[in-house]
């Protein structure tokens, strides 16, 4: 373990900081003045204070922010930089977005006062008037009491929301648990499908991938649907690991993706373009070639796996042609042989290319297989993710140096305790993606039709929500026009309390709005990392401006109205909690320095050794059995069949002719995918996470919008017949609505697919519904609220559309 903190600490203590900061500041001014902000004058004067803080948005970076403060205002934003940084001692440097925080924090659009919806206006119209804190808290608390009395605590809900990460970022859950609780959710919008399927295959423990640094020992790297350069930005996160690994590995890297993503650039990687939603078909065809040519690792498959062939099938399923080999060779299920010729039209990859890749896979070792979360955020995502994980098993490339188990790469982080949420007296839980269903028709939702857990069915619909730091009511949820209809109806959800820093679209559905502080305007602590782990300890950059308060204070005020303030605070301020929680963590991790030192250094970094996934299992599968029912890798899962017995399925949830969900990693054509486009909507529409924003965060900052415009990536083969030229304004349409954005005519996307980044701010007319045009270009105007069949997750990359010149 390398401790890089000493030199930096010494550096700060010796007061060398200011000289160096002037240099760093100069850099920041130059970048800022590109936008013509006129900030240079403010920066030229010496600052009065430098504080540490962290980015708290849902981006793995959670990078360091070094705030230069003058006259109690942030004069400029710097980050974790020091002259002694080297390629081997990286720093938690903020990306362009993080470095624009001053613009967000001081934006005229920032929420400054409590507000309530203007009487007589509908939710979604966005008309608000200023009220006092007293009135705001009174309203929110009295409505909560009313709903709990009328409908019970199961009618209260805290929707999925990712705008704030810190050790004390869940105060509202803690408060609600003190007043009877709330309806739980499970899943995330990030990983619903892969998180659900991985335990079926690898068990629920020790099932993670290898660290990216393990790719240094590989000879061949297959990366399915991941772009660390775009989705893992920041100086000390997976993008750093990716660049580092690429410099060191001798491996050939394949990027298997519908888009030539930014991680390909300037590197030795080769793009293997694939149609979205079809990775499982590619894996089946690769498997076909490996089996046909006797190149599978039979010893591995027979020792470590269940369900590969007849011999390894669970007893109850033997003699039924239900193995993965039967599926691949055409002796079971759909009885279609999964030859490269079969896969070619589905995947868009020529048969001879599939054969060549199979040969390369068979003859090169070690092979490192990794996937991002794009392939799983789809209608068939559980099976796509499963198939990608099955590939390394077919060739025995699991648990050895230079391999991974086909899941996402591992990340390291020091461990910090969080503000205890207490115990929720309500046990029922819904998939987070189905909250609009729970508002609309909660009591119709059951375990068998909607994945309700810890109850057979919901007793009530959702009647009260606290939406804290999230844009998932509309913008980041699916089918914005449908979400609007459900949320605007006050007879369904009776009250929505919204807490944010700006009026994102979801906030326009609030009945009462509360103005929050950023984490860098608070004391705050966060732990994160990848190959390196780090902790950032922040203090407030400025005093609270206008009438903004911390979420902790807001929750305490609500608790007061219910007579549980003392139980909520336990007599502590947020700062005192952070400190106490840190001290607790330190008891378990003796290497952590005292809190004062952490505050002073701002960023504490730690390097971790490479992780090779499932190494112990490989070494001794009996002593280190997996937590699957068989203790082995399950390529066929009897448990999945049992867990889903009697589930109500919809058309397209499973293979044609099957009445259960597939218990193995087959290719299921997507409901709205390459094989199911229509005459009206002949193109596939696939989303991705954009470098210009984190989801919708920063989506309103003009300078960032200008350098990261909203574009529909379209192949020249699809653009030309439609008379569309690069830069044209186009309308992308399907049954759920229309979005307006620029055309990016480029061979960087496969023909037949249009790619649109997710997270743009919806900008339409609430009264126009799906006949209106969303000029913001938010892809969720076009996505469906139908969940994926097994995890009930958000299949937001699965869509079809037509594109026309506007
Ligand atoms: N800049 C930026 N960084 C982010 C975020 C952001 O919004 N912006 N969001 C953060 C969050 S919360 C998360 S969960 C992660 C998300 O991280 P990911 O889920 O990994 O990101 P995506 O962009 O959705 O998907 C990764 C890639 O998969 C590709 N892809 C889509 N469908 C398929 C498919 O069927 N097969 C294959 N092979 N590839 C496919 C997409 O084109 C995309 O380039 O990123 C985090 N980082
Ligand atoms: N079509 C499509 N939709 C998707 C995805 C996709 O791939 N495709 N990805 C999904 C994924 S992976 C995720 S994680 C979700 C993310 O969805 P959200 O969790 O809604 O993420 P953001 O859009 O970043 O919204 C975060 C909100 O927090 C606010 N915020 C920031 N800082 C603070 C603060 O200090 N205090 C308070 N109170 N608020 C703050 C921001 O202003 C913003 O409104 O989106 C999902 N939606
Ligand atoms: S958006 Fe991500 S990469 Fe950028 S500063 Fe924040 S945490 Fe770091
Ligand atoms: Mo996410």
Automatic annotation (TrEMBL):
Keywords: Iron, Iron-sulfur, Metal-binding, Molybdenum, Oxidoreductase, Signal. It comes from the Bacteria. The keyword Iron applies. Residues 778-798 have a biased composition (Polar residues). Residues 772-798 are annotated as: Disordered. Residues 48-109 form the 4Fe-4S Mo/W bis-MGD-type domain. This is Molybdopterin-dependent oxidoreductase.
């Amino acid at each position: 373990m390398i401790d890089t903190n000493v030199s930096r600490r010494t550096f700060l203590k010796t007061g060398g900081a200011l000289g160096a900061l002037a240099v760093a500041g100069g850099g920041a001014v130059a970048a800022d003045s590109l936008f013509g902000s006129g900030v240079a004058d403010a920066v030229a004067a010496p600052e009065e204070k430098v504080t540490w803080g962290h980015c708290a948005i849902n981006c793995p970076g959670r990078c360091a922010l070094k705030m230069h403060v003058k006259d109690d205002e942030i004069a400029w934003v710097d980050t974790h930089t020091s002259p002694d940084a080297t390629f081997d001692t990286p720093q938690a440097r903020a990306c362009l977005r993080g470095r624009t925080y001053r613009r967000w924090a001081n934006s005229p659009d920032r929420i400054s006062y409590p507000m309530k919806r203007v009487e007589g206006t509908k939710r979604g119209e966005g008309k608000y008037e200023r009220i006092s804190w007293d009135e705001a808290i009174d309203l929110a608390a009295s409505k909560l009491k009313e709903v709990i009395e009328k409908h019970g605590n199961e009618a209260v809900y805290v929707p999925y929301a990712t705008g704030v990460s810190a050790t004390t970022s869940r105060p509202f859950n803690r408060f609600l648990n003190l007043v009877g609780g709330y309806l739980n959710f499970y899943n995330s919008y990030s990983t619903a499908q892969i998180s659900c399927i991985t335990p079926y295959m690898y068990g629920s423990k020790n099932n993670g991938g290898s660290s990216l640094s393990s790719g240094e020992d590989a000879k061949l790297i297959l990366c399915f649907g991941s772009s660390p350069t775009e989705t893992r930005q920041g100086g000390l996160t997976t993008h750093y690991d990716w660049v580092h690994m690429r410099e060191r590995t001798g491996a050939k890297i394949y990027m298997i993706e519908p888009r030539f993503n930014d991680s390909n650039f300037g590197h030795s990687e080769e793009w293997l373009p694939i149609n979205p939603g079809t990775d499982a078909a590619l894996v089946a065809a690769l498997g076909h070639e490996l089996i046909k040519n006797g190149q599978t690792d039979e010893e591995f498959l027979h020792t470590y796996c269940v369900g590969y062939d007849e011999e390894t099938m669970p007893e109850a399923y033997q003699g039924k042609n239900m193995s993965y080999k039967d599926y691949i060779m055409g002796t079971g299920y759909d009885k279609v042989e999964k030859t490269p010729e079969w896969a070619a039209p589905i995947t868009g990859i020529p048969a001879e290319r599939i054969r060549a890749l199979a040969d390369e896979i068979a003859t090169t070792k070690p092979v490192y297989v990794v996937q991002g979360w794009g392939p799983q955020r789809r209608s068939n995502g559980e099976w796509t993710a499963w198939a990608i994980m099955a590939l390394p098993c077919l060739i025995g490339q699991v648990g050895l140096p230079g391999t991974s188990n086909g899941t996402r790469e591992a990340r390291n982080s020091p461990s910090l305790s969080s503000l205890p949420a207490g115990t929720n007296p309500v046990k029922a839980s819904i998939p987070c993606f189905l909250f609009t269903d729970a508002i609309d028709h909660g009591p119709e939702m059951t375990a068998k039709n909607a994945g309700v857990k810890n109850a057979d069915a919901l007793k009530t619909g959702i009647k009260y929500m606290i939406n804290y730091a999230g844009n998932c009511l509309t913008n980041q949820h699916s089918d914005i026009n449908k979400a609007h209809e459900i949320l605007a109806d006050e007879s369904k959800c009776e009250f929505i309390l919204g807490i944010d820093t700006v009026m994102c679209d979801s906030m326009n559905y609030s009945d009462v709005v509360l103005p929050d502080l950023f984490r860098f305007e608070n004391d705050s602590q966060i732990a994160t990392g990848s190959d390196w782990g780090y902790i950032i300890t922040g203090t407030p950059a400025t005093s609270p401006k206008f009438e903004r308060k911390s979420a902790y204070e807001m929750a305490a005020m609500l608790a007061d109205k219910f007579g549980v303030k003392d139980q909520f605070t336990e007599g502590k301020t947020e700062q005192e909690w952070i400190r106490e929680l840190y001290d607790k963590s330190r008891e378990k991790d003796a290497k952590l320095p005292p809190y004062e030192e952490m505050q002073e250094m701002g960023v504490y970094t730690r390097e971790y050794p490479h992780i090779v996934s499932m190494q112990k299992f490989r070494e001794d599968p009996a002593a280190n059995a997996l937590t699957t029912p068989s203790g082995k890798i399950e390529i066929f899962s009897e448990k999945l069949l049992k867990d889903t017995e009697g589930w109500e399925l919809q058309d397209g949830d499973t293979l044609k002719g099957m009445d259960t969900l597939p218990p193995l990693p087959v290719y299921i054509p997507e409901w709205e995918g390459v094989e199911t486009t229509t005459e009206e909507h002949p193109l596939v529409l696939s989303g991705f996470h954009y470098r210009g924003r984190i989801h919708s965060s920063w989506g309103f900052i003009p300078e960032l919008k200008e350098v990261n415009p909203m574009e529909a990536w379209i192949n020249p083969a699809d653009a030309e017949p439609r008379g569309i030229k690069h830069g044209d304004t186009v309308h992308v349409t399907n049954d759920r609505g229309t979005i307006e954005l620029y055309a990016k005519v480029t061979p960087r996307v496969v023909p037949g697919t249009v790619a649109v980044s997710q997270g743009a701010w919806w900008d339409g007319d609430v009264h126009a519904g799906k006949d209106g045009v969303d000029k913001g270009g938010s892809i969720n105007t076009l996505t469906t609220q139908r969940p994926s069949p097994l995890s009930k997750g958000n299949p937001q990359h699965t869509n079809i559309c037509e594109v026309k010149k506007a």
